Amino acid sequence: MTSIAIIEDDQLISQMYRMKFEEEGFTVAVAADGRNGVAMVEKMQPDLVLLDLWMPELDGIAALKLIRALPSGADVPVIVLTNSGGAADEAKLRALGIEDYIVKADFTPREVVEKVKEVLNRKK
C-alpha cells in the first residue's frame, strides 16, 4: 500500500487531506510540526511527503534539509503545500529537490490527490 507523510501544523487541513488520501486507499501519517515530521519520515519511510512551509519547531525548509540528509529521505518525493506563493522560496525548495510546489488556496483536496498520484506514477 502506498504511504503518504503529511507534515502540516493546521489540524483542520491535515485531517482533510488525511481523509481524502485514505478514501483513495493510501496509508497516511500526520505530524503537526517539522521536528516530529522528520522523525516520522525516518521511521515510516513513506512513498511521498506533503510538507507545509510555515510550522512551529522547525519550518518546512529546515525540515526538508533534514529529510534529505536521511538515508531513506534522499530520494523520497516531496510536494510542498503552502499558502505563501514566494518565488524565492520555490527556487530554494526546487534546489533541494522537491517534486512540486502547491499553493493551498489554488488547489482543492481532490486536485492535490491527483497531483500526488501523478508524481508517484512518474517515480515508478
Task: Describe this entry's structure for a reader.
The structure is a single chain. The chain has 124 residues and is an alpha/beta fold. It has one domain (3-119): Response regulator (Rossmann fold, 3-Layer(aba) Sandwich), CATH 3.40.50. The protein has five helices and five strands, in the order E-H-E-H-E-H-E-H-E-H. It has helices at 11-23, 34-44, 60-69, 87-95, 109-123; strands at residues 3-7, 27-31, 48-52, 78-82, 100-103. It has a five-stranded parallel β-sheet with strand order 2-1-3-4-5, with helices on both faces. Strand 1, helix 1 and strand 2 (27-31) form a beta-alpha-beta unit. Helix 1 (11-23) crosses helix 5 (109-123). It is globular and about 30 Å long. The two termini are 14 Å apart.
